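Morning. Coffee machine broken again, so started the prediction first thing and wrote up yesterday's gels while waiting. Chain of 111 residues, entered below exactly as on the submission form.
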Amino acid sequence: SSPLAVDAGHRAVIFDRFRGVQDVVVGEGTHFLIPWVQKPIIFDCRSRPRNVPVITGSKDLQNVNITLRILFRPVTAQLPRIFTSIGEDYDERVLPSITTEILKSVVVSTA
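Came back before lunch.
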C-alpha cells in the first residue's frame, strides 16, 4: 500500500476503481491506499476569498459596477457528493452564478 499525506486544512475523497467514490471523507494525517485501485482527490477546506465583479442595470437604466468579495469553504461531510455531482472545480462552476444573482437582487432592491 502507498501512503497518502493529507495536509492541515485539507480533506480527501477516495475514488476506488471497483466501488466508485467512497462516502468516507479522509481527514488530516497519513493514510494508506491500495495502489492502482484507490486514488485520492484532495480538497482545500479552509476559508478562501473570491472577488466577483458584476455589471448590472439599475431601475433608472444606469450601469452599476459592483464587486462582491466572499469567503467560502465546502462542507466537509458533503465532499463525496460535491465531487460526484459537480466536480473538483465546484467553486468555478457554482459561485459565479450564485453571486451574480445575489448582486442583481441587491442592486434592484437598493436602486
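The two ends are 61 Å apart (CA to CA). Going to sketch it on the whiteboard this afternoon.
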